[in-house]
């Protein structure tokens, strides 16, 4: 767990020092270092770090020709990436480094562009699990990262660039389809009627979950049928955190300045839409590794929302108390999820590198 905690301290600290330096060169250098470190930590890990990493490596070893990755396969973007990595080297670290580079390049510039105090957002990028998500679900992690990179287009109301970016994400994981309607659902305001409609949508999703998943299985791939299979359930803690965070962000929207209210509400509406799927997944006791994992397309909005809240707390003492309290909750959540889910602990360096 220690490598993750060191990363959680190092990344926002260096980003903060770079931003506060007043030098554009130092600022850019600090961001390059931060991005490089995050790529290296993810890319140089052992194949045993991340439940599904071994599956991706077996696919990597079978990626011997361009035809083998394009013929009769869905999500050709990832398979092409796997073939490209195999063409460069037979070491799986090349594949993991390329995956990490794509994800970090999607998140980091977007965070810097949309967040004034981006060090807080980078802390949340790691603490809330968006960074470690792709350690396990590489394809979906790439797709979610590309969709996150489309947020500036959504906020600027540039429809075609947004839809084109989401279409690119779908080449890596078809679940990115859920991001398409967000362009229309990200309303510039939040009203009691909208909240009531979300409650109705949640109830309808629970009732007709098997119908929706069956449609997805017929449209894309039969593997999505397992999303509606009843299991022992799971994800209760994750859902509780997502609901608590959503309630806090909803209550705090009244403190947002008028000139930032539209952006805040659009991002918050995306987050709240994601709660519909998360609640339906947990209440229906379906496979938590399927439907619940869709939250990554929505919950990542919190990375941008919390810095907007903290920057508007003018009272230094109050801001300090709020920051310490939030820090404690975020770190506790990070430690619990990292040590519990996806076989992320213990972190190990790729044994092939150690032999070099």
From TrEMBL:
InterPro entries found in the cross-reference section? EpsG-like
Superkingdom of origin organism: Bacteria
Coiled-coil ranges per UniProt: none
Asked whether the keyword Cytoplasm is assigned, the reply is: no
* Assigned keywords, A-Z: Membrane, Transmembrane, Transmembrane helix
**For this UniProt entry, which segments traverse the membrane?**
91-109, 121-154, 160-183, 195-213, 233-252, 264-283, 295-313, 320-341
Q: Which Pfam families match?
A: EpsG
Protein name per Swiss-Prot or TrEMBL: EpsG family protein
Q: Which organism is it from?
A: Stenotrophomonas koreensis
């Amino acid at each position: 767990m220690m490598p993750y905690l060191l990363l959680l301290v190092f990344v926002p600290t260096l980003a903060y020092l770079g931003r506060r330096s007043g030098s554009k060169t130092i600022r850019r250098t600090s961001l390059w270092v931060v991005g490089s470190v995050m790529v290296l930590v993810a890319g140089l890990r052992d194949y045993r770090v991340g439940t599904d990493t071994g599956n991706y490596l077996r696919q990597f070893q079978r990626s011997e020709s361009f035809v083998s990755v394009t013929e009769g396969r869905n999500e050709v973007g990832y398979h092409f990436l796997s073939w490209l990595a195999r063409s460069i080297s037979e070491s799986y670290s090349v594949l993991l480094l390329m995956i990490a580079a794509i994800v970090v390049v999607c998140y980091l510039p977007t965070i810097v562009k949309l967040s004034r105090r981006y060090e807080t957002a980078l802390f949340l990028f790691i603490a809330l699990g968006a960074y470690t998500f792709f350690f396990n679900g590489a394809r979906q992690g790439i797709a979610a990262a590309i969709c996150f990179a489309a947020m500036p287009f959504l906020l600027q109301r540039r429809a075609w660039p947004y839809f084109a970016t989401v279409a690119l994400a779908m080449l890596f994981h078809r679940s990115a389809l859920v991001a398409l309607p967000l362009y229309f659902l990200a309303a510039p305001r939040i009203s009691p009627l909208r909240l009531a409609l979300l409650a109705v949508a949640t109830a309808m999703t629970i009732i007709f979950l098997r119908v929706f998943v069956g449609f997805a299985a017929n449209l894309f791939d039969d593997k999505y049928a397992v999303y509606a299979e009843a299991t022992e359930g799971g994800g209760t803690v994750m859902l509780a955190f997502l609901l608590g965070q959503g309630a806090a962000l909803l209550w705090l929207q009244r403190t947002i300045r008028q000139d930032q209210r539209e952006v805040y509400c659009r991002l918050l509406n995306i987050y709240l839409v994601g709660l519909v799927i998360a609640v339906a997944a947990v209440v229906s006791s379906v496979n938590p590794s399927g439907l619940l994992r869709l939250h990554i397309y929505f919950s990542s909005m919190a990375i941008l929302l919390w810095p907007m809240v903290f920057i508007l707390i003018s009272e230094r003492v109050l801001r300090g108390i709020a920051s310490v309290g939030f820090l404690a909750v975020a770190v506790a959540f990070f430690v619990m999820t990292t040590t519990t889910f996806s076989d992320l602990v213990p972190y190990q360096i790729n044994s092939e590198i150690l032999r070099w």
